[in-house]
Specification:
This protein is of the alpha/beta class. 44% of the residues lie in helices and 16% in strands.
Length: 289
């Protein structure tokens, strides 16, 4: 009988933030695959757990996944953990999980701590729906484009940032995420935990050391309509866009943006609708000829 890969969430800071089930699994498995064995050993030592460990990081994930498959096929149970939070969410683990599932072996989640849910819970937002952006891109151009895409969603969004890049990322937010409340969570659940609500009109925080989770509120623009409702009017959107394009006065991308603004959509929503409609019309025409 094959073993099971348990994907175990571990504390994001405070070592007490671990479930009883997670502790039991860590005690019972034959092997722990850890992002950083030194970090995980501190957790295990705190709870008096001694288990063999292997390192499973981004650069060796594919190779180690193949080794784990062999051990699972021999009936061993394995726990997969990251440095903090849940493996595979802005952390290594997803490729290993895919490979193990593809091999027909069982995978079981052991849920627990998450910086994302911890941050959204203290932001005070209506969060029936939100977007998780992972880590911000490194370059200025990519970061600006990424922020624009997130703000166009209209929903609250959350992202992670490292201490040496958070200052420039918040500066980009000040240009793009206008009229949004930003909740900056620094060192969540740790000794020096700090929560700052920042209206974009001044300095954000004094201390940029530590790990950051940032929550940006949704759009407060009452003219933004539900995107799915607007897309249901696709015939009107396509017709209006084609009329504007046919005038040959406004550039194509500007036409998409103009129509999008009127329907509370993103320009790329309009672009995709028109593209699909044109492809469908061409196929029908070709079929009739």
């Amino acid at each position: 009988m094959p073993g099971t890969l348990f994907v175990v969430a571990t504390p994001i800071g405070n070592l007490e933030d671990i479930t009883l089930r997670a502790l039991r699994i860590l005690k019972e498995v034959d092997l722990i695959a850890a992002e950083d064995t030194r970090r995980t050993r501190k957790l295990l030592t705190h709870y008096g757990i001694s288990k063999p460990m292997v390192s499973l990081r981004e650069h060796n994930e594919a190779r180690e996944a193949a080794k784990l498959i062999g051990r699972l096929e021999r009936g061993e149970n394995v726990a997969l953990v990251s440095d903090a939070g849940t493996p595979g969410i802005a952390d290594p683990g997803a490729r290993a999980v895919r490979a193990i599932k593809a091999a027909g072996l069982p995978v079981s989640p052991i849920p627990g701590p998450s910086a994302v849910t911890a941050a959204i819970s203290v932001a005070g937002l209506d969060s029936d729906s939100f977007t998780f952006g992972g880590f911000a891109p490194r370059t200025e151009a990519a970061k600006d484009s990424w922020l624009r895409d997130l703000t166009e969603e209209g929903r609250p969004f959350i992202f992670l940032e490292s201490p040496h890049r958070v200052k420039t990322t918040l500066a980009a937010c000040s240009k793009i995420c206008v009229e949004r409340q930003i909740t900056i969570c620094r060192e969540l659940t740790k000794l020096h935990e700090t929560l700052v609500v920042w209206e974009i009109n001044g300095s954000a925080i004094d201390n940029y050391d530590g790990e950051f989770t940032v929550v940006v509120s949704g759009s407060s623009d009452s003219n933004v309509v539900d995107r799915q409702s607007a897309i249901s009017l696709h015939d009107d959107i396509i017709r209006l866009t084609n009329l504007i394009v046919a005038t040959d006065v406004i550039p194509l991308e500007a036409s998409f943006a103009a129509v999008a603004a009127g329907f509370g959509l993103r320009a790329r929503d309009v672009r995709n609708l028109v593209k699909k409609a044109n492809i469908s019309a061409k196929r029908q025409k070709d079929a009739q000829s």
